[in-house]
Amino acid sequence: MKPAVSEWVEKAEADFVSAQREARARKSPNYDLACFLCQQSLEKYLKAIHQQEGIVFPKTHNLVCLLDQVIGKYPQLEIWRPQLERMSSYAVIFRYPGESSNKEHALEALKWCKDIRKVFRDVLGITNA
C-alpha cells in the first residue's frame, strides 16, 4: 500500500472509531459529532481509493462527487450512492446552529459507515476486521 493511501486509511479509521465511541456514549453523547465523523471517515476512505488509483480529487466534502470519480473503475460502489448522498450533508448540517442530530440519526450513520467502510476496505485490499 502506498504511504499516502495508508495515511488516508489511518485517518479514516480514527474517525470511524471516534464515531462509534461518540454514538454509543452513555453519558453526554454528541450525536452531531458522531454523524460528522461518519461522513469524515467515508470521505477519507474515498480519498484513499483516489490515491490508490492515482486520481486527483478536488477539495470537497461531497461524497457523491468523490464517488463519481471512481465509479468507472468500481461500479459495485453505485449501490451506496443514496447513503453517500445523505451522508454528504453531515459534513456541514449538524456542525452549526439550526439543525441537530439525534440518536436515531447517529446510529443510522454509524451503520451506513460500517457497511460502506467494509466495501471501501475491500476495494483497497484491506482485510476487514
Draw up the topology in text:
Elements: H1 3-23, H2 31-53, H3 63-70, H4 81-88, H5 103-123
Helix pairs in contact: 1-2, 1-5, 2-3, 2-5
Describe the protein in words.
This protein is mostly helical. 63% of the residues lie in helices and 0% in strands. The chain is built from five helices and no strands. Helix 2 runs parallel beside helix 3. The protein starts with a helix and ends in a 6-residue tail after the last helix. The model has no long low-confidence stretch (mean pLDDT 94).
Structural class: mainly alpha
What is the overall pLDDT average?
A: 94
Helical content band: 55-70%
Query: What gap, in angstroms, lies between the N and C termini?
Result: 17 Å
Report the sheet with the most strands, covering strand number, pairing sense and barrel closure.
none
Query: How do the SSEs run, as a string of H and E?
Result: HHHHH
Strand-residue proportion: under 5%
Shape call: globular
Total count of strands: 0
Low-confidence sequence ranges: none
Alpha-carbon Rg, integer:
14 Å
Number of helices: 5
Q: What would the keywords be for this entry?
A:
mainly alpha, 129 residues, globular
Structure summarized in a few sentences:
By secondary structure, this protein is mainly α. The chain is 63% helix and 0% strand.
